[in-house]
Amino acid sequence: xxxxxxxxxxxxxxxxxxxxxxxxxxxxxxxxxxxxxxxxxxxxxxxxxxxxxxxxxxxxxxxxxxxxxxxxxxxxxxxxxxxxxxxxxxxxxxxxxxxxxxxxxxxxxxxxxx
Length: 114
Fold this sequence. Notes:
Elements: E1 2-7, H1 11-17, H2 24-34, H3 38-54, E2 64-69, H4 76-81, E3 96-100, E4 109-113
């Protein structure tokens, strides 16, 4: 079985990327995010997804996690640079964990586990 997760960086960025209407407060939050380093946001968002998904249980004995990057400023190369800092929680239910570098897979795929 596959568990698919989408990597956006933040809720505000997800709304912007998906073309959803942004409130003034959301626009301000998104502007504040622009001030943070992209690598920091990528690492935080990726580790947040991994932690959240590691707590789930599945009926299947063989489950792969595929994290699909939806942020246009990140790619597989960015994930590879941060590889040593990515925290794959122990005891997660996944046989394999992959990050698809972009929505179309053009930048490549990164195997996080094993």
